[in-house]
Amino acid sequence: MRFELFIAARYLRAKRRQAVVGVVTGISVLGVAAGVASLIIALAITNGMRRDLQDRLVGSTAHVDLMKVAGDGMRDWQPLLARLRGVKGVVAAAPGLYGQVLISRGARSGGALIKGILPADERTVSDLLGAVRDGSARELEPDAVADSTDPNARAIAPIVIGKDLGESIGAGVGDTVLVTSPQGELTPLGIVPRYERFRVVGIFASGFYQYDSSYCYMRLKDAQRLFSEPDLISIISFKVKDLYQAAEIGKTIEAAAGAGFQTTNWMEQNRELFRALKLEQVVTFIVLALIVCVAALNILIALTMMVMEKTRDIAVLMSFGVTERQVRRIFLFQGLLISVVGTVIGLVVGYGASWAGGHYRFIRLDASVYSIDYLPFAPKVLDAVIVAAVSLGVSLLATLYPSRSAAKVLPAEALRYE
């Protein structure tokens, strides 16, 4: 151990002539530990919320969507779909037909976004059909109606709706709803909206109000019949191998599709949401870092008081040949030791609390408000490095003034009356 570090450690362990110096030193250690632990826990929570939100978004939507820039959609889409499935990086692809409709049951109604799908293909690009809580999406399969013994199943086409949409119109599994399309038929009396009855066979709950309150799924051929658009789709959805390369793979898909097509990806569709989460994480870090700054002020006070207490000892050391630089290093190391001890304690407490919170899920949430029933934790090693660097850096700045004051002690003046 080098000389300056040895003296600094001795000063920290030595008994105090003034007990208040020891108390302030202990408070400094606890302050640094509290600040570091708070930062680790807060960052773990924001990381956990971002991870869970991203997993739910990626599971509920496709990674890349291909649409036609002009026109009403894609016709003769089967060869295009087969060709795009072979694009490098594409894992699966599924066609879909979107359309805005009015869905009603009795006197209650609401706007909805219909998506006509091929269930087997849709399950390869999205997990939303797997989120059916009541009923089953099995009846959307092509052979489900033919195999059914229920005469209503043969007469009325099936539909799967979101949980919040079902609550708003008062529809449950087995109920019949009326779906009205604004794309009606031209008659002598004008355009008459086209409508058709569907039987609710399943209700999904994705955890996102946007989907649960407006999304409905039906078979592709039923949607095409409702919109009077046979052999038409509006979108091709893709699942890619690396979801973080969705933008690059989307450009490759555009090039393979040819002119007149464009793609969007899950990052573009949710850019503002993730930007807000990132800003929240930065603001949280700045606010909680103030705790470390307060602890650094305690370190400054503790070292200043220690310099006053150790003035005679400093003078004796300097009379023995200790240089001003060495005296400065003694108190720099002393403040650094306080910061290191507090930082280590804070990291242990922070990661311990984060692990316990993520493992035992003892902090419960209202699922109807937050979409999840527990508070997620996702601590990262990089966060520990950043927090430790900030803690040590701020604490080191706090030691500059006391260490400089200690180096300016004049041995003759300090020992004159000894």
TrEMBL record:
Subcellular localization, as worded in the UniProt entry: Cell membrane
A GO BP annotation: lipoprotein localization to outer membrane
Domain (MacB-like periplasmic core): residue spans on this chain: 25-255
Domain annotation ABC3 transporter permease C-terminal: ranges: 286-408
The keyword Glycosyltransferase is annotated on this UniProt entry: no
Membrane association type: Multi-pass membrane protein
One GO location term (cellular component): plasma membrane protein complex
Keywords: Cell membrane, Lipoprotein, Membrane, Transmembrane, Transmembrane helix
Official protein name in the record: Lipoprotein releasing system transmembrane protein LolE
Organism of this sequence: Granulicella sibirica
